[in-house]
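Hey, can you fold this one?
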Amino acid sequence: MDPVSPALTRPGPLVQPGPPLTGAQVSRFSRQLMLPGFGELAQRRLAAARVLVIGAGGLGSALVPYLAGSGVGTIGLADDDTVELSNLHRQVSHGVADLGRAKVDSLADTVAAIDPSCRVIRHRDRLTSANLLDLLADYDLLVDGSDNFPTRYLANDAAVLAGIPLVWGSILRFHGQAGVSWREFGPTYRDLFPVPPSPDEVLSCEQGGVLPSICALVGALMSTEVVKIVTGVGEPLLGRVITVDTLTGRSREIAYEAVADAPEITSLIDYEVFCGVRAPGDAGDDAAADGAVDGEGAGADAASARASGTPAPRGVTAAEVLARVRGGEALRLLDVREPYEASLRRIAGSELLPLGDLVAGAEPESGDAPLIVYCEQDLRSRRAARVLLERGHADVVFLVGGIDRFASVADDLVQR
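Sure. Predicted structure:
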């Protein structure tokens, strides 16, 4: 797939300024008003802004208080969950007294304690293809702090159709990432992740755990992007994704571009089917749309893989691959990431075949040597290995931990 450059026009302020600030507002936001390039006009834009936040959990409870503290005038909260004891170690806007309460109610109380003048609209609903676009008609910007892929793709596509920017983030274990998706000015979440991972290869926070402070780090990044987009101050994360690793204390920026031949988003689809969470035809809450995005086969592929009887692909460690390379064994290395990722670093001698192309029918170069598939970590490579096994490729494994793990043990074999 050939990339195209994002639009060259830099976005200006998203929101027209509201009424002049009162004396109390000037006092409240005085430390923000004195920031270089900010001033009263930017503060008035924030006061007029209407922001819908998906999720009142780890990311939502971290970013929403900062939106309120920054002066965002209207905040919509969309979450149908209640507060549980296991939430409290990371969802710090909720407390013991909130156990059993709706998260949107608890988080709304947190906002009211920060700034009673901030208008909070509570949507205690499960967002679907049937209701999200109607909600977005009342908002200027969407923030996705959800914890699952169907909602992430739903949020992206709804923002594209509504013509508004999307600020997104995700967290798991010690890692997090954040970015901006805005079709009018650059690439979207689908350009970064064209194909969702198979659901049996996705860890949730419940299964994999999460460090509380990563919620704060990524939530702060997301709230900052909202302020920048609304006011026009600074440079938004358009065509760039920030990744954070709390174990090493390192962050990394990955640039990406819009995909030229990506299918056009014309309406919303059934995202549980698209992501393989539910097989086509099964009962579900999402309303499927005809002819929306030519990509539902990816979800169907994941569902059929589980029912096909194909053995789960086997993983090999970075140390094992290094030993086989040092021992002179003939191996084929298949990189299933996107071209912009491979341009940053790749294992020497590997072939590039993005997962989206592979799922669409493309084949790796022929050869008799064992095939080792890798990606950035190992979510996409697991899926790719499964697809290849289903097509009859016999000796296929995936690299556990991906190029991240391999670079830690064999950095001399990684080209940059």
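Confidence is low (pLDDT under 50) at residues 1-8, 285-308. Let me know if you want another pass with a different chain boundary.
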